[in-house]
User: Which sequence fits this backbone?
């Protein structure tokens, strides 16, 4: 039976980092809806063209089209045994639509719980290299030379979405739109709540155990 792992958690919880590690440990493809958008738009696929029409007119891409894009990807042979889904669903309506398409698959949802104060500290302290995109953090991984990337020496800058005002807005949107998805999967008995504030290696071990269904 195909196993689908759904990663949940607020911005800054570490989903992207942990998703890559989990995918490698489980030999399971990491499917990111953000990557799917970029790929379909870049290649000019039929789904990409449809999405572009909505985006260019300032409209949100309909959930049905996002799901069509997702299932076009997971129909490939590398996803036959399962895959790890990152960045979707973001709303209860999307989760309900996804349920319909996942009938017959085993679903596990892993939720990284992190306090707002910790998330704000993580996100607002990030500085990105203009040259190689390597990320430093002013507290957790400060550069050896102020304003310069340790990896390539490039100039560091703070992305607009990592400023304090934008981070607060992102968290507000998350609480309003995406946090209710936790209750959706909790009601189905497939949600594992995990402490995302611990050291990354500890979080990974807990996520791997939950992904394998250990201790359930």
Assistant:
């Amino acid at each position: 039976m195909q196993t689908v792992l759904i990663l949940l958690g607020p911005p800054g919880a570490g989903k992207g980092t942990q998703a890559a590690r989990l995918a490698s440990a489980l030999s399971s493809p990491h499917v990111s809806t953000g990557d799917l958008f970029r790929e379909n738009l870049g290649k000019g696929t039929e789904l990409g063209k449809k999405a572009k029409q909505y985006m260019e007119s300032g409209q949100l891409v309909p959930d049905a089209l996002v799901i069509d894009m997702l299932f076009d990807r997971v129909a490939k042979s590398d996803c036959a045994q399962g895959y790890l889904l990152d960045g979707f669903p973001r709303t209860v309506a999307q989760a309900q639509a996804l349920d319909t398409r996942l009938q017959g698959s085993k679903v596990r949802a892993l939720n990284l719980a992190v306090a707002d104060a910790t998330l704000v500290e993580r996100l607002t302290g990030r500085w990105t290299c203009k040259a190689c995109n390597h990320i430093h953090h002013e507290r957790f991984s400060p550069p050896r030379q102020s304003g310069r990337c340790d990896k390539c020496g490039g100039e560091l800058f703070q992305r607009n979405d990592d400023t304090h005002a934008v981070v607060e807005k992102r968290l507000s949107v998350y609480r309003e739109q995406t946090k209710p998805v936790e209750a959706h999967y909790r009601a189905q008995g497939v949600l594992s709540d995990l402490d995302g504030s611990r050291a990354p290696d500890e979080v990974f071990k807990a996520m791997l155990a939950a992904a394998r269904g250990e201790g359930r």
